[in-house]
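Researcher: Let's do a round of design. I'm pasting the structure tokens now; please hold your answer until I've finished.
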């Protein structure tokens, strides 16, 4: 048989006006009900018989009797705080914050009005290379968005087009420790993709390097945009529909063509020297053996021709940055193949 005791705040010194304490037949407190001065109420239940995995649950109600929050204290020292949008003014219905016995938050669950939810996990034990991971789900349980915060303060987000409203399936964005976008990957519905590297720290002469992939993962185009304007574009005929194998174009800061080279299917090379100011070296027969040009954007292009047939390549070109470091090189070899080297961080 349970018993009750009623306490009133006759001195009006507390935030409540009355409390009703309920005891089981062994005299153990199993329930506390409080009426607050603002007409809200608090309902507390205790696991006096120790039959549950929790010791106490506190329910808080507003003046209209709507549940606002609850706190569950577990036997192992952990606790959960749950908040409800009783007034219906938010985009979410409830939020559950979970704390371990050490008092550290390790999980956050948010239920949204549209039936979706988000789950955030915190690496309180420091056993992972990330500090926080969040997943957002739609009403059907599909992941629509995820975000990972790493220990080095960098961050990665992935957005999924589960509704099929876009021409892409997912977009991945990578941010450096300063919060600057450094890399992004777009995967399209037709299987192709675009990968973009950005000079987030502004440490190079280029601002953006874009790689376009075909449905089989093959590179179909590379584009390097320079800080002061102009760009280098490399196209590859992976489908074999053109009369050329590769086509390269370098544009000056004013948009005019600085250099163009086309490697044809018959392994011949067709060049257009454009508007760049070329410095040339000739062999004894008067043929150009070496040429170089500063392209007006901090880069220099050097092209060598193996007129003496001393190498296993016929033409070799290198694009250097302002510090003299190679950004890109390409060679047409005697067997007709084209070999390229894209230097880190562009690789």
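Researcher: That's everything. Go ahead.
Model: Designed sequence:
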């Amino acid at each position: 048989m349970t018993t009750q005791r009623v306490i009133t705040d006759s001195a009006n010194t507390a935030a409540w006006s009355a409390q009703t304490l309920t005891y089981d037949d062994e005299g153990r407190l199993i329930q506390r009900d409080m009426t607050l001065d603002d007409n809200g109420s608090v309902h507390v239940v205790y696991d006096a018989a120790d039959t549950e995995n929790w010791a106490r649950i506190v329910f808080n109600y507003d003046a209209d009797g709507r549940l606002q929050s609850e706190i569950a204290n577990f036997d192992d020292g952990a606790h959960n705080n749950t908040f409800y949008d009783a007034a219906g003014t938010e985009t979410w219905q409830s939020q559950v914050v979970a704390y371990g016995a050490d008092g550290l938050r390790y999980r956050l669950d948010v239920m949204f009005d549209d039936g979706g939810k988000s789950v955030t996990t915190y690496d309180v034990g420091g056993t992972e290379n990330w500090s926080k991971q969040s997943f957002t789900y739609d009403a059907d349980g599909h992941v629509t968005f995820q975000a990972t915060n790493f220990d080095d303060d960098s961050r990665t987000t992935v957005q999924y087009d589960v509704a099929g409203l876009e021409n892409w399936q997912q977009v991945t964005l990578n941010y450096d420790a300063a919060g600057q976008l450094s890399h992004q990957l777009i995967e399209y519905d037709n299987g192709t993709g675009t990968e973009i590297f950005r000079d987030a720290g502004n440490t190079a002469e280029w601002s953006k390097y874009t790689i376009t992939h075909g449905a089989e993962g093959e590179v179909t185009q590379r584009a390097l945009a320079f800080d002061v304007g102009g760009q280098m574009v490399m196209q590859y005929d992976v489908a074999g529909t053109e009369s050329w194998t590769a086509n390269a174009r370098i544009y000056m800061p004013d948009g005019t063509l600085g250099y163009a080279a086309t490697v044809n299917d018959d392994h011949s090379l067709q060049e257009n020297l454009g508007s760049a100011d070329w410095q040339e070296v000739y062999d004894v027969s008067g043929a150009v053996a070496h040429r170089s040009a500063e392209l007006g954007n901090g880069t220099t292009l050097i092209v060598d021709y193996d007129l003496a047939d001393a190498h296993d390549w016929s033409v070799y070109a290198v694009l250097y940055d302002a510090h003299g470091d190679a950004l890109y090189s390409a060679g047409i070899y005697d067997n007709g193949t084209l070999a390229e080297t894209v230097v880190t961080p562009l690789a």
